[in-house]
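just leaving the lab so this will be short. what follows is a protein written twice so to speak, once as letters and once as structure tokens for the fold. can you read through it and tell me how you think this chain folds. anything you notice is useful, everything is just below:
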Amino acid sequence: MSTIEENIRVLSDRVKTQSNSLLTEEAAKTAVILPFLRALGYDVFNPEEVIPEFTADAVGKKGEKVDYVIKFDGDIRILIECKPITTKLEKTHLAQLYRYFSVTTAKFAILTNGRFFHFHTDLDEPNKLDAKPFLTFDITDLQSSAISELKKFEKNNFNIENILATAERLKYTSGIKVAINQLLESPSEDFVRIVCAGVYEGRLTATAKEMLTGVTKSAFQEVIKDNVQNRLSTALAATEQSAPTENLIPAVQEDDIVTTDEEVEGYMLIKSIVRDIIRPNRIFIRDAKSYCAILVDDNNRKPLARMHFNRTTKYIGLFNGEAEERIAIDSLDHIFDFSDRLRETAQKYSA
């Protein structure tokens, strides 16, 4: 059975490849919104659960419709308004959601153009929709943190209190991330002055500002790149110090099975994540045609993880007992996001 993450990432790939066909609101609703709701576990064919073109009498507006409403136990809880994918989502597009939020029992509102999703609630003032979203994401560049938050909106997991418990932190985190990305792409003059104050001693002429702005942007990007690389290098170095050579396998095995550099690096990362629970010399890599297994004591009955890297979309297989859950990953660094899960599994074999 597919997981929410697998379904959402399939949808992500669709939006990437079919964005030119999502130029109308109806196209975005059919190709993205309905599959998105189904991925979250909602029955889009049940008009008592997912209601399209919902009408409610708002103050000063009669017969105005919102694209979709989701109900729980007969109560409206989520409002959804969709725009064409070419629309830049702005505060003005919240007008209908704003009015409906105040006259229904809705607790959350989603504004989307099929690519960007903005989740709103009423953190600032009860029963009044916040102008700023507490969660935003680009479905074509989906991060694991967004997937974690989306899981809270699954039909089987939906709990208003649980979502609101982290919504305020997410709201400010999202705002700060937007500000950082803006600085990364186009450093403001004030920011350039601050970071260059102790570096550049000359007069800040127009020419100097232009030069330093470019330098600041490049330096900002390099700091991020270096931090990611250092994280990987530290993990690999720590593992290599204690990794016995007999655990490593040749690049090409029998039956034309090829163990790639990525699989070996993934194996080293997983060893480094659990090394304080299980000694590295107990963790083995065993490759197969369809996946590459990470085993404890080289025992098939002690699976720690599986790497499904021989495909366009890469997956990491995590275990809870004998059942494997496959989760799509964007890069090897994404494996660190599942450290807790890997360590929980390792703990079962620690004795």
The chain has three domains: 4-180, 192-241, 243-348. The radius of gyration is 24 Å. Confidence is low (pLDDT under 50) at residues 243-254.
